[in-house]
Automatic annotation (TrEMBL):
Segments crossing the lipid bilayer: none
Annotated InterPro entries: CRAL-TRIO_dom, CRAL-TRIO_dom_sf, CRAL/TRIO_N_dom, CRAL/TRIO_N_dom_sf, GOLD_dom, GOLD_dom_sf, PRELI/MSF1_dom, SEC14/CRAL-TRIO_domain
MF (Gene Ontology): RIG-I binding
Domain GOLD: 511-664
A single GO cellular-component term on record: cytosol
Alphabetical list of Pfam families matching this protein: CRAL_TRIO (PF00650), PRELI (PF04707)
Residue ranges annotated for the CRAL-TRIO domain, each copy included: 309-485
Gene name of this polypeptide: SEC14L1
SMART domains named among the record's database cross-references: CRAL_TRIO_N (SM01100), SEC14 (SM00516)
GO terms (BP aspect): negative regulation of RIG-I signaling pathway
Upper lineage: Eukaryota, Metazoa, Chordata, Craniata, Vertebrata
Region feature Disordered, mapped onto this chain: 192-217
Residues of the PRELI/MSF1 domain: 3-175
Full protein name: SEC14 like lipid binding 1
Length: 705
């Protein structure tokens, strides 16, 4: 398996020339790097004007590995080749390194660069990336891989400290400024014209002109606008991460940039999914894509603005936000024992309760951001205090338990790592029964955050006072703080609805979405008919490719097609797609005669989001078509791959899924917004750090990814 690493941008608040002077002191060896035994120059060249300097070194490393493993490998040291290309004119240093030892068994490559900060020429940026392909190693592949990753992570963590050590050494020697390189003919003039600053220059560079380093990669609203993360921002806004965890965050963020152009979820949200999947990149990526699609389809981003909490919940739902805990996390209090769960389900239905819980989670995300700014440290989760006094067999009503499990399932999938701690107090004897029912549906990492107190155990040392300030312990638990959470009570039976009424209400709640889903099969595209009566009307679209690869086309026909029909998949012996697959174009129609293509075909890959528009030239019927793309993603060889052959035998590989929204606008009204593409926002997610504009065209669509 190939292991990859990508670092954040590490910013040194010193000029490039001073950083280079510090960097060069690492050679031929450095006592600060114990594994770096020695280095020998094997090649060196300079350009005539001295602007470019290339050095290749053979480096000797003493890796901290078990003696037995070294004896089996038959080596004491490992050898790497490092090539440094220093360009004084462009003020860049590029470093390439690869392993010489065991190169047929292990392939290690690394690339590092020192460059000038794009927004401050007196600062220097450092980035590095690396990969390791462990093919074989005497039967100890797993052990050797772990040792290599541990050593590499340790060297990454120490890299910045080493540069700063040599900077202090230079300062002690009185070197606080090094003039920039200039051509030999003008160097004397330039050097005489520049006054060398005093030793205060180093402090001035450290203080920086305006704001900390992390601000340089953020907009005034606090959103990331530079497409790279710097290490200071990660530490201050996201918390302490190991080098490999930083790498996972950056690589997942880069993947999102490539597939969801301009529509990145906030870094805190990406990090939650990584933590919930133990920083396994593939699992986190899959879960994150699913939740972003879910949010878009059900318009969860607008829930806080659109959800009107029924008065019944105001009166009988015994939960609410209440100050914060000792760590600054928002505190949510739920008096579950006082809640009539049966009455709420019978009066409102399962979906209304779910919507309400989702609005609570959305508000929790917002409160975490507020508390991060208030307390000046990363806060990405909240604490929940659950009071079970009054819990009885009534709470074990089967439909109520079903509703609770559904809520847990949705919250676990879409709000991972948002619960920092769950404090359960006054747990009665019936609680173990409830816990047995629900605990299998709760993630193991989440269960570890549960603290359960029976009776009055929550009082005194080891209880609530260890986690919540005495000033904020609610009055009904013996504290002095007044709590505005409703006391609940039994919901009057006169407010109960029939099962049919609840079902109709639930259907209404979850069909209130502007997005539709469609299945696309091999040989059965999904087509959408749009009739245009006014020339220059604008057809707009916004769709996500949820599964598989598709090709998107737009056609025009003067003829009205036959009544809409659904196709069958006779070639596969199946009954045909479900009702969300529709064909409009008659099989007898001829392209170029009965209908024509008005836009170039667009190939869209799984995970991509597409927005665009088309200004119509003629009245008539326009057909938007999503069809299956059976072109191999990579066709370097004319011979089919085994994976492709196996995939072609599976019916499931012939199915794609898209989620789409379209709208027809008068040309004068078109500004490229989301419900009408009017504010140039795609509306993918409120968790977005940026959005993609859908450009305007006079005679063709502009599609963005």
């Amino acid at each position: 398996m190939v292991q990859k690493y990508q670092s954040p941008v590490r910013v040194y608040k010193f000029p490039f020339e001073l950083i280079m002077a510090a960097y060069q002191r690492r050679f031929p060896t450095s006592p600060l790097i114990p594994i770096f035994v020695h280095s020998d120059i094997i090649f060196e060249s300079k350009s005539e004007d001295g602007a470019t300097h290339v050095i290749e070194r053979r480096c000797t490393l003493d890796v901290d590995a078990p003696r037995l493993l070294k004896r089996i490998a038959g080596v004491e040291y490992l050898y790497f080749v490092q090539k440094n290309t220093l360009d004084w004119r462009q003020r860049t240093l590029h470093i390439e390194a690869y392993n010489e030892s065991f190169s047929s068994r292990v392939v290690v490559s690394e690339h590092c660069s020192y460059t000038v900060h794009p927004e401050n020429e007196d600062w220097t940026c450092f980035e590095q990336s690396a990969s390791m392909d462990m093919k074989s190693f005497f039967g100890f592949e797993s052990t050797a891989e772990k040792i290599a990753m541990r050593q590499y992570a340790a060297s990454i963590k120490k890299g910045k400290e080493i540069i700063e050590y040599y900077l202090r050494e230079l300062e002690a020697e009185g070197v606080t400024f090094i003039p920039r390189w200039s051509t030999p003919s003008t160097s004397a003039i330039v050097s005489s014209a520049k006054a060398i600053p005093t030793s205060t220059s180093r402090e001035e560079h450290r203080r920086a002109p305006k704001g900390p380093a992390e601000v340089l990669s953020r907009s005034p609203e606090g959103e990331v606008t530079w497409n790279k993360l710097d290490a200071d921002y990660i530490r201050h806004c996201l918390g302490e991460l190991s080098p490999l965890q930083e790498s996972c965050l950056i690589r997942l963020r880069q993947w999102l940039q490539e597939t969801h152009k301009g529509k990145l979820p906030k870094d805190q949200h990406v990090l939650r999914f990584l933590r919930s999947r133990d920083f396994i990149l593939e699992k986190a990526r899959e879960a994150l894509c699913q939740t972003l699609t879910w949010r878009k389809q059900h318009q969860v981003d607008f829930l806080l603005d659109t959800w009107q909490c029924p008065q019944l919940l105001h009166d009988y739902y015994t939960g609410g936000w209440h100050h914060h805990d000792k760590e600054g996390r928002p505190l949510y209090i739920l008096r579950l024992g006082q809640m009539d769960t049966k009455g709420l389900v019978r009066a409102l239905g399962e979906e209304s309760l779910l919507r309400h819980v989702l609005s609570i989670n959305e508000e929790g995300l917002s409160r975490c951001e507020e508390n991060t700014n208030i307390f000046g440290r990363p806060i990405s989760c909240w604490t929940c205090l659950v009071d079970l006094e009054g819990l009885n067999m009534r709470h074990l009503w089967r439909p109520g338990i079903k509703a609770l499990l559904r809520i847990i399932e949705v919250v676990e999938a879409n709000y991972p790592e948002t619960l920092g701690r769950l404090l359960i107090v006054r747990a009665p004897r019936v609680f173990p029964v409830l816990w047995t029912l629900i605990s299998p549906f709760i993630d193991e990492n989440t269960r570890k955050k549960f603290l359960i107190y029976a009776g009055n155990d929550y009082q005194g040392s080891g209880g609530l006072v260890d986690y919540i300030s005495r000033d904020f312990i609610p009055d009904f638990l013996g504290g002095d703080c007044q709590c505005d959470v409703p006391e609940g009570g039994l919901v009057p039976k006169s407010l109960y609805h029939t099962a049919e009424e609840l079902e109709n209400e639930e259907v209404k709640l979850w069909t209130e979405t502007i997005y539709k889903t469609a299945s696309v099969f091999k040989g059965a595209p999904h087509e959408l008919l749009i009739e245009i009566t006014e020339v220059s009307s604008v057809i707009t679209w916004d769709f996500d490719v949820c599964k598989g690869d598709i090709i998107f086309n737009i056609y025009h026909s003067k003829r009205a097609p036959q009544p809409l029909k659904r196709e069958t998949l006779g070639s596969h012996g199946l009954a045909g797609p479900s009702g969300n697959n529709m064909q409009v174009i008659d099989r007898s129609w001829m392209l170029g005669q009965d209908y024509s293509m008005v836009e170039s075909a667009l190939t869209c890959r799984e995970g991509e989001s597409i927005q665009g528009s088309h200004v119509t030239r003629w009245p008539g019927f326009y057909i938007l078509q999503w069809r299956f793309d059976n072109t191999p993603a990579c066709s370097v060889s004319s011979r089919p791959r085994v994976d492709d052959v196996l995939a072609s035998l599976q019916v499931s590989s012939h199915k794609c899924k898209v989620m789409y929204y379209t709208e027809v606008l008068h040309s004068a009204d078109f500004r490229g917004s989301m419900t009408s593409l009017a504010s140039s926002h795609s509306g993918f997610s409120q968790l977005s750090a940026a959005t993609t504009s859908s450009g305007q065209s006079h005679c063709s669509s502009v599609t963005s990814r």
